[in-house]
């Protein structure tokens, strides 16, 4: 995808929100030859430049709906992988097997759908931890109450507490479960991130 929007080009060349950057070999559309390009990954947008110092990218690959796979047929010349869409595939080569793996992992985790799945899994784990913590606190409280009751019966009735003329004590603040805090702040973080992306793509 070629870029004509000045705001998107400015976002591509800014130094903020860079997830990964480096030189890769990109196979031309309808061509058997590779060209060296500078790639910059920002969120789910993969920009590519002719040179690192260029002020405007040659194009951008929007990673939503894509999969990242090895390009075994291209392995003779480079350590190649491909970004696959239903109607198209981009073939890219790295200088080493390690660099290829690093880029494949970064690209596979870059889509918004993947982020949503990870957030949902983290939320599930947090909910389980909170439920286990609540059950443990309830069990401990019940054991403590039972012990106090049996001790009081053995020692006889307990006299009522004396009233002290002191300053009124403030009620203790109710402790909010970590899962609720995570959900509240997580929603705010995601809303802020979506707003930044919307502004960047306008």
Could you explain the architecture of this structure?
The protein is of the alpha+beta class and 202 residues long. The protein folds into 2 domains: 105 residues, Roll (PH-domain like); 51 residues. The protein contains 4 helices and 7 strands, in the order αβββββββααα. α3 runs antiparallel to α4. The two termini are 16 Å apart. The mean pLDDT is 77. This is PH domain-containing protein. It comes from Orchesella dallaii.
Termini separation comes to: 16 Å
Q: CATH architecture of the largest domain, please?
A: Roll
Broad CATH class of the largest domain: Mainly Beta
Low-confidence stretches: none
User: Strand order, biggest sheet?
Assistant: 4-3-2-1-7-6-5
Report the CATH superfamily of the largest domain: Pleckstrin-homology domain (PH domain)/Phosphotyrosine-binding domain (PTB)
Secondary-structure-derived class: alpha+beta
CATH topology grouping of the largest domain: PH-domain like
- Biggest pleated-sheet summary: 7 strands, antiparallel
Radius of gyration equals 29 Å
As a percent range, the share of helical residues equals 40-55%
Total domain modules:
2
Q: What is the tally of helical segments?
A: 4
Percent range for β-strand residues: 15-25%
Mean pLDDT reading: 77
Overall shape: elongated
């Amino acid at each position: 995808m070629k870029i004509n929007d000045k705001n998107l080009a400015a976002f591509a060349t800014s130094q903020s929100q860079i997830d990964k950057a480096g030189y890769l070999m990109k196979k031309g559309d309808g061509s058997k030859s590779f060209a060296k390009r500078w790639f910059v990954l920002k969120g789910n947008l993969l920009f590519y430049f002719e040179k690192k110092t260029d002020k405007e990218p040659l194009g951008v690959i929007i990673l939503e709906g894509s999969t990242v796979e090895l390009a075994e047929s291209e392995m003779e010349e480079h350590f190649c992988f491909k970004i696959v869409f239903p109607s198209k595939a981009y073939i890219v080569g790295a200088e080493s097997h390690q660099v290829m793996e690093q880029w494949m992992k970064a690209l596979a985790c870059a889509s918004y759908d993947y982020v949503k799945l990870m957030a949902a899994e983290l939320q599930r784990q947090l909910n389980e931890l909170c439920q286990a913590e609540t059950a443990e606190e309830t069990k401990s409280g019940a054991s403590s109450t039972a012990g106090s009751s049996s001790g009081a019966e053995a020692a006889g009735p307990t006299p009522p507490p004396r009233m002290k003329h002191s300053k009124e004590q403030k009620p203790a603040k109710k402790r909010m479960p970590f899962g609720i805090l995570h959900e509240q702040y997580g929603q705010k973080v995601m809303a802020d991130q979506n707003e930044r992306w919307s502004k960047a793509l306008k």
